[in-house]
Specification:
The chain is built from eight helices and eight strands, in the order H-E-E-E-H-E-H-H-E-H-E-H-E-H-E-H. It is an alpha/beta fold. An eight-stranded mixed β-sheet has the order 1-2-4-3-5-6-7-8, with helices on both faces.
Amino acid sequence: MVAEMNDDFEMDRMSLAPPEADEGRRAFLVTKLAAGFALAVSPVTAETITTSAEGLTAGEVKIPVAEGEIPAYRAMPSSGKNHPVVLVVQEIFGVHEHIKDVCRRLAKLGHMAIAPEMYARQGDVSKLTNFQQILNIVGKVPDAQVMADLDAAVEYAGKAGGDVSKLGITGFCWGGRIVWLYAAHNPKLKAGVAWYGRLAGVPAELTPKHPVDIGGALHAPVLGLYGAKDKGIPLDTVEQMRAVLKKGEIRVYDEADHGFHADYRPTYHKASAEDGFRRLQAWFKANGAA
C-alpha cells in the first residue's frame, strides 16, 4: 500500500479544503511522539536503516509555542557544544521512526537535528492506516502555522546550546515543499535541502503560495532532489522551478521515484538516496550550515 502513496500529489487535491470553524480554538491533539513507524507505512522493508544513538543525546523534547508545547525529536552529539542546527521536516506520516533516524544520521555528522511534530494541533496520523483519513488531517495544517512552529524550534535550539548562526533545513515529501517555503520565510537560514517536495499547486486559504511562486525570493539557497519517475511531481513543474530559482539548484535522478530516500518503503532507491545525502552534506558545508 505504501508504494502507491504519493503525499504531494494527493495533497494538491486537499489544499482546497476549508479550515474548520473551530480551528483556532483547537487544543493540541498530539502531545507525545509515536514510537516506531506510523501504521500507514507498514510493513517496512528489509532495507530499513537503523542508526544507533551511541555517542548521541537523542530523544523527545517539548518545544514552547504560543499556545503551549509541541513534541519534537532531537538528536545531537553527546559531547562538544555549539552544534550547527538543522530542522528536519516530516513526511506526510508525521515524526515516526524514519524521521527520527534521519535526525540521528545528521547528529552523527555533528548537527543538532530537530524534527517538530507539525500536525500537533490537527491530529495524530501515526495510528491511521486509511490514507484519506490522513489527508483529512494534513489538509487542515496552515502554512503559517508550520512557519511559526519551525521558528519556535529554532528558538528552542538556540536556548539549548545549538549554533543557530549555522541553520539548515531538510524535509521529505510534504516536508520537501515546506523547505522551499521556509527558505523564503526565514532570512537567517543558511541552506535547505528539499527531497521531492511538491512545487506547484492551486492557491488556497491555508496554502496561499507554492514553491514556484516564491522561487525568486529565497533568503537561502535550496538544493532540490527529485525523481524522474515521480508521477505526482511532473517534470514540467521541476522545470518551472528551475526557471524562477535564483538561489539554489535542482537535481533529478533518472531512476528514482517519489520517496526514493525512504529506506523503509518499496520506492527506496539506494544509489539516489546515498548520492543525495552526500550532496546534502556538501551543500550545508558550502553554504554555512555545517
